[in-house]
Design brief:
nicotinate-nucleotide diphosphorylase (carboxylating) activity, EC 2.4.2.19, 2 domains, alpha/beta, glycosyltransferase, 6-stranded parallel sheet, binds 1-O-pyrophosphono-5-O-phosphono-alpha-D-ribofuranose
Length: about 300
Amino acid sequence: MKVNRFMIRPLIEMGLREELSSGDTTGGFLVGDDPIQTANIYAKGKGIVCGMLFADETIRTIEPEARIEYLVEDGDEVEPGTVLMRVQARASTFFVIERSALDWLQQMSGIATKTRRYRDLIKHTKVRITDTRKGWPGLRMVQKYAVRVGGAHNHIFNLANCVLVKDNHIKIAGSITEAVKILRASAQHTFKFEVECETLEMVDEALKAGVEIIMFDNMDLEEMREGLKLVNGRAMTEASGGINETTIVPIAELGVDVISIGDLTHTVKALDISLDVKDIKPSAHRTISRLKQLSN
Ligand SMILES: O=P(O)(O)OC[C@H]1O[C@H](OP(=O)(O)OP(=O)(O)O)[C@H](O)[C@@H]1O
């Protein structure tokens, strides 16, 4: 699933509003007749690019006539110095959009870069990596898009996507068996059922209840190996709980179907990306000196 301008516009406006709720007190006074300038958005680190449409929409929201040339696309690997985008727009536009456009790119590329690293670690297996719902509230769509760009898959988007029975549901219902019985009677027939199992006894109970997906939740390698024997192809298996770059390979090699990882979206190092205005037009300088004269 791709993102489109309609989906992202409210987020873009939210970002710009943080920046520009009552004008630009620095750039706004410097631009004078506000000539068209050219700027490059370029990588300062190595990673996977994500968020080109977000940067584009940020620029176009302020200056719809801006000319934007893409030199890479989401999912491309970049090196320090790679130009992602060349933009022709008013000087005043660059001052307003710079932080916001770059932050979308930096944060989303950070997620895509980390995701690609995880994916590459286990590409010798058939295991599917997914995200979780862990991340920034309000930005789930963005984070999950970046995970897909990085080469992994999405787990549920929200509570309406499947019946996911967690520890607290089991406590409230009394048992896995009881929870599944109640939910089978009320949930849509189209839904799959997944149960988080912390022990092999829970795996056994969930299998007897006939669920489609068993999560090995916070289990060690040996328990997961036993869990897989128990399941024996009767359900999909998902490993989860604190899995990181140092633990993922042996888990994937066990042969679970899915590994879900909160780290993809809850602990992200941004990719370093910058914006540089080129070819400064002399009229901009003239305006600055005129301002200086006026203030003398
Ligand atoms: O890769 P992680 O960051 O560990 O995320 C995955 C874990 O999160 C979920 O549990 P839950 O929502 O109960 O969170 P918690 O187990 O981390 O408290 C899921 O059942 C995994 O245990």
